[in-house]
Amino acid sequence: MTTPYLVLDGLCKRFDRLAVLDQVSLAVGEGEVLALLGPSGSGKTTLLRLLAGFETADAGAIRLGDRDVTALPAVQRGFGMVFQHYALFPHLTVFGNVAFGLESRGEKDPATLRQRVAEALHLADLEGFESRRIGELSGGQQQRVALARALAPRPRLLLLDEPLSNLDPTLRERTRRELRKTIERVGITTVLVTHEQEEAFDLGDRVAVLWRGQLQQVGPPEELYLEPANRFVATFVGRSSLVPGTVRLTDHAGRVWVRLAHADGPVWGAAEVEGLHEGDAVELAVRPEALRLLPAAERPAEGLAGTVAARRYGGAWTSYLVAVELGGGVVEVEVLAAHDAARVGDAVALEPRPEGPRPRAFRVVPG
After folding, report:
1. What pLDDT was estimated at residue 101?
2. Average pLDDT value over all residues in the chain
C-alpha cells in the first residue's frame, strides 16, 4: 500500500441497540481501490455512508489526506459518489446530468462547465453522447454517466455503492472492465461497496471483508483466497468445504497435522491459522481445486472414501463440481476433465493435490 490517504480509526455506529459497525479501522493508500466486501447486513453500506457524511459515527475518526473530516458535512468533504440506482435525471441530457454536479457546487461559468463536462465524458468514454436523453442509453452507459457526474468536480475521493448491481451478467462484466480502466486512468482513491466476490476481486487492489459490523480481513484478492484469516472468510470468499478433525501434532514450519473425523480418516497437513494444540477440535477449510477425485479402488492411504452425491457442470475448462458424501458431511471437488467426472452414486476416493491450495485449520468454538 502507498502512503495512507484515507484513514478510518475505530469507527462505531449503532442504530438503537444494534451495533452496525464495531471498531472498524483501516487505511487506504493514495490512488488505491479498496473493495468493501460482505453479505447483506454486514455494515459495508453504513461504512460508505459514514465516509460520505450521510451518517454520523458514534465513535471514531475519519481522516482524508491531512484533514479530519469526521464532523464535516457531506458537501465539504470533496468526494464523488455513484449510487446503486445512479440517481440520474431523466428530463436532462447527458450533458445536463454531468453538469449538475458542478452547478450544485456553485460553478456557473458556461465555459468552465463545458470544459469540465467534456473532460469527465472523455474519462468515462462518453464523448458524443452530450445531447442524449437518459432513456436513450443502455444500463452500462447510464452507469458511466453517473461516474462522469461524480468525476466532473475532480473529487478527492470516489465512493461507489454497488455500482453494477442493476446490470445483467454479460453487461456487468464488460462494464466492470470499463470502470476499472477509467479509475486507473484518473488515478483517484476509490472505495467500492459490493457483495459480489468477483466484482471485488476484479476492481479492488485490496479487499476488506466485513461481517456483523467487524473487519475480518484486509488484503489483496489472492491473499484472501489462499490465506483466509478465519472460518467466515474461508467460506464467504470462494468455495470451501469444511472437514472436521482433531489436531494430531504441529511442527515449527507453520503446519498442523489433522486426523480427519471420518471412520478411519487419514492425517492431512494444513496451514496453521492460529495457535493450535494436540487434541483440539478443528475444521479444515478445503478448496475444490485442492482435491483429486479417484475411483474407490485406487484410494490411497491418505484418501477419503465417499459417494458422489451430485455434480454440476461448471463450463470453464470443461470442469465439473462434484459433491462427495463422506458419511458425515459433503466435500466439493473440481474435476477438470469432463470424461473423468464420476456419476451420482459412484463410490470414489478423495486425496489432496500436492500443488493445490493448502487447507486451512480453524479451531471449533464450542456453542
Report:
1. 79
2. 88
CB atoms within 10 A of CB 35: 25
Residue 318 has pLDDT above 70, yes or no: no
Rounded to whole angstroms, the maximal C-alpha distance in the chain is: 80
Question: The C-alpha cell of 355 is what?
Answer: 500443488
The 3-state DSSP class for residue 224 equals helix
Name the pTM for this structure. Answer: 0.88
Amino acid sitting at position 246? T
Strand-by-strand arrangement of the 18-29 sheet: 18-29, 4-15, 59-64, 67-68
Distance in angstroms (rounded) separating the CA atoms of residues 48 and 29: 17
Give the Cβ contact number of residue 170 at 10 Å: 8
Smallest CA-to-CA distance from 75 within 190, 188, 152, 153 is with 153
| C-alpha cell read off for 360 | 486451512
Asked if the model's pLDDT at residue 211 lies above 70, the reply is yes
The band of 337, judged by pLDDT with boundaries at 50, 70 and 90, is low
**Whole-number Å distance between alpha carbons of 77 and 74:** 5
**Site of grid cell 445531447:** 131
Q: Do the bridges between strand 320-325 and strand 190-194 make them parallel or antiparallel, or are there none, so unpaired?
A: unpaired
The number of CA neighbours under 13 Å toward the Cβ of 354 is 0
- Please name which of 186, 179, 246, 170 lies closest in space to residue 31, comparing C-alpha atoms: 186
* Residues contacting residue 108 through CB under 8 Å, at least 6 positions apart: none
* Residue pair 193/36 in contact by the 8 Å Cβ criterion: yes
Task: Please tell me whether residue 13 adopts helix, strand or coil conformation.
Answer: strand
Closest Cα to residue 142, out of 158, 160, 124, 157? 124
Model confidence over 78-116: pLDDT tens digits?
898 888 787 888 899 999 999 987 887 777 788 988 899
* pLDDT above 80 (res 9): yes
Q: Collapse the DSSP code of 4 into the 3-class scheme (helix H, G, I; strand E, B; otherwise coil) and give the result.
A: strand
Residue 229 has pLDDT above 70, yes or no: yes
